[in-house]
């Protein structure tokens, strides 16, 4: 049971890192540090978006519209961390 929870925790950590990478690349695009002609970075960004969009879109529907700022990645990270805390408490009790 503990091994399963550790594997699940590792997968949650990978998902959190993907959210952070997506956020950073989005910021680099927004501030024109990286332009959209760099096909390698665009492919990485599109791949991460296609992985995270099914998870982020329900959160975006629930959150109120805040203009250009998207808080759904932050909410996802908080939910994943809360899930990891709950699962670790269940595994060790």
From TrEMBL:
Domain of life per record: Bacteria
Keywords: Membrane, Transmembrane, Transmembrane helix
InterPro entries linked: CCB3/YggT (IPR003425)
Pfam families in alphabetical order: CCB3_YggT
A Gene Ontology term for the protein's cellular component: membrane
The keyword Membrane belongs to this UniProt entry's keyword annotation: yes
Transmembrane segment boundaries: 7-31, 71-92
Name this protein carries in UniProt: YggT family protein
Species assigned in the record: Pontixanthobacter luteolus
Lineage of the organism: Bacteria, Pseudomonadati, Pseudomonadota, Alphaproteobacteria, Sphingomonadales
């Amino acid at each position: 049971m503990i091994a399963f929870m550790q594997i699940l925790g590792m997968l949650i950590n990978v998902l959190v890192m993907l959210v952070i990478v997506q956020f950073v690349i989005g910021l680099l695009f927004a501030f024109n540090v990286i332009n959209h002609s760099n096909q390698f970075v665009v492919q990485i960004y599109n791949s991460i978006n296609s992985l995270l969009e099914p998870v982020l879109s329900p959160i975006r529907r629930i959150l109120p519209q805040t203009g250009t700022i998207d808080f759904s990645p932050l909410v996802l990270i908080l939910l994943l961390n809360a899930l990891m805390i709950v699962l670790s408490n269940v595994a060790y009790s």
